[in-house]
């Protein structure tokens, strides 16, 4: 289980690019615009491995995701919309006790009262650039 510290300021998915013999990770402008990060400040960065199959074939639906509504999301914005209903798989629990699921491109969805192994149907209630918040609408698919 991954522990997420209270000091976490930002969480987003990015690709590592090579530019003139160095490697660059682009930080979305929304992280600065929403004051999660400040230009010319130094930050510690953690890299989490993402499944190569999800990165190499974005049209392939991840095993833990079954969307009930067809949406078209560009690769630059969040892969979910407010009001969207979908099945997720809770992977871990955050510091506040909420379930954490990941969907396309490693995007994080926070689900209150969910535990690792649960597979609830949720409704996305609030979408931010790097995280969404959802509520369980059907817990029948939860594991016991």
Automatic annotation (TrEMBL):
<feature type="compositionally biased region" description="Low complexity">
    <location>
        <begin position="50"/>
        <end position="61"/>
    </location>
</feature>
<feature type="domain" description="TRAM">
    <location>
        <begin position="79"/>
        <end position="138"/>
    </location>
</feature>
<dbReference type="InterPro" id="IPR012340">
    <property type="entry name" value="NA-bd_OB-fold"/>
</dbReference>
<dbReference type="InterPro" id="IPR002792">
    <property type="entry name" value="TRAM_dom"/>
</dbReference>
<dbReference type="Pfam" id="PF01938">
    <property type="entry name" value="TRAM"/>
</dbReference>
<feature type="region of interest" description="Disordered">
    <location>
        <begin position="48"/>
        <end position="97"/>
    </location>
</feature>
<protein>
    <submittedName>
        <fullName>TRAM domain-containing protein</fullName>
    </submittedName>
</protein>
């Amino acid at each position: 289980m991954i522990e997420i510290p209270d000091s976490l300021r930002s969480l987003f998915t990015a690709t590592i690019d090579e530019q003139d013999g160095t490697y660059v990770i682009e930080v979305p402008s929304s992280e600065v615009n929403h004051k999660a990060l400040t230009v010319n400040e130094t930050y510690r960065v953690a890299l989490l491995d993402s499944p190569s199959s999800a990165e190499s074939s974005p049209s392939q639906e991840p095993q833990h995701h079954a969307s009930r509504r067809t949406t078209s999301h560009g690769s630059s914005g969040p892969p979910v919309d407010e009001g969207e209903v979908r099945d997720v798989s809770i992977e871990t629990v955050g510091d506040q006790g909420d379930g954490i699921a990941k969907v396309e491109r490693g995007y994080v969805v926070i689900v209150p009262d969910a535990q690792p192994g649960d597979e609830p149907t949720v409704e996305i209630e609030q979408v931010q650039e790097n995280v969404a918040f959802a509520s369980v609408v059907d817990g029948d698919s939860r594991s016991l």
